[in-house]
Amino acid sequence: MSYNVQQPNGTNWEGRKGSVASIINSNQPDVIGSQEALAYMAGYIKGTEYTVYGRGRDCDEGGEGSFIFYKSAKYDIDYSNSGSFWFKDNSSECGRGWDPDYNRICTYVRLIEKSSGKGFYIFNSHFATSNRVEARSKSAKLLVNRVNERTIKDPVILTGDFNSIESDPITSFFKTGSDNPVKLRDTYRDVHPSSGGNTFGSVKYDYIYVPASSNIQTLASEVIESPVGSDHRPIWAELDLNAGDNPSTWRITIQGSNGKYLSSEDGLSAMMCDRDEADDWEKFDVIDNPDGTFSLRGSNGKYVSSENGNSPMMCDRNTPDDWEKFNWVELGGNAFAIKGSNGNYVSSENGLSGVMCNRPDIGEWETFNWTTVASGASTSRVQEVVSEEGVINGDLALFPNPANTYFKISGLGGTCVRADIYDLYGELVNKSCVSAGEKIEISSLTEGTYLVKLSTENGATQTFRLIKK
Fold this sequence. Notes:
The chain is 11% helix and 35% strand. By secondary structure, it is mainly β.
C-alpha cells in the first residue's frame, strides 16, 4: 500500500486517525509506504502487527517522514541494505536540497520473507510539488539511479506520493525516459489500463511502481474510497514477485562431511568449512541463473567465486560472472556436490584450509549437505544429475514453481519426454509423457517437495525440484 496520511497541523488528526487505522486493519497490507506522517503518528499507525522503519526528514530526525511499515511476523529487515537519503546533491546528508520549500527524503528497506528467505526492496518517496520542475526532475533521476545501484538485485517496488499526474513529465520519465536505467510500470494500470485510480481529488498522485522489465505480476490493485482518513486516498496492489521465469532465490547452510559449516568469512579472507554452528556468515542465498547454473551470495551481499580453482575461494565478487557460476550435482537426499565452471569440484579440504574448486572427482570431502534456513524455501533450478545415462541439454525450467494444480516445462522441443515425479522418499507418485506447452496435472498431490525426473528415449536425464502448494 502507498498512503499519504496527511500531516497533522490543522487537519484534525485525532478525529481521522481511527479511519486511517480502519483502512489498514481492513485491508491488512504486508507493507505500507507512507508519506507526511510524524513519528507519533507512525507510532499510532503501526499498532501491534507492524514494525516501522524510517526517520523524520529534518536533521534532528523530527518532521515528516517517508516511514515504511511491515508485518514483523512475516518479514525480517536487512539493515545493511536499508536506509534513507535526501533529494539533494549530497544525498546522504540531511537538509534542504533541490526543493527550496521542504526537506525531501526517500526511505528504503530490504525485507526478507521469513518463510522462504527471499528478499525484496521497497523505496518510498514524497516528491516536490509540480511547480518545482527542476527539483522533481533531479529527484526522479536520483531515485531510479539509487534503485539501479542497489547492492543485491532482488525484486524492487517503488511507492510514493509523486505529486505527478499521469500526463506529467515525471510520470513519463519513470515509464519511458531515455536516460532512465530502470523503466517502471504502474501496477494500477496493469489492472485498470485506462480508467480510475484518482488518489487526490480528481487526479492520480500516488503510485506503486515496479520495473517494467521484471516478471513481477500484478494480481489486483485498487484505490480505497472509504472511509476517508486523509486528503489522499490510499492505493494498494497485490503482487507476485516470483511470476514467470524470475530466477528463484532461497537461503541455505552448507555442511561438509566433517560436520562443519562452510563460512563466507564475510568476504575478507579465504572461505573455510570449519564452523561448528551456522550464523550469518554461514548462510548463503542460492541464485538461479537462466543458463541452469546457480550462484552463491553471502550475507555481505557478495558472490562466491571458484577463483578458477587456482587459489582458495572467496566471497567477495560484486556480480556473478563465469567463476561465480556453479552446477548443482545431486547425490541423493540433501547431499550434493558443487562443480565450478572449470569442470572441477569444490572440496571442503576437511576444514583444515581454505576451500578450493580443484578436484576432478567427487569424494568424501567434495560431498556437502544443504539445509534451508527458512521453511518453504524453493527453487526451480535445473540440477545436474550424477548418472551414466547423460544429461539432457537445453535451458529447461519448471513454471510455475511453486505450483498448485499443474506445471509446464519450458525449453522442450516437440519430442515427447517422460516426466516421472518422486516424493522425497523415492516413491514414484506420477508419470506422464510431455511435449512443449503441455500441462502436467498435480492437483491430486499433497503439499510438499517433489523431484521431477525427465528422461529421453536415448536415456539422457534431468532432475528438478518442485514445490507443490
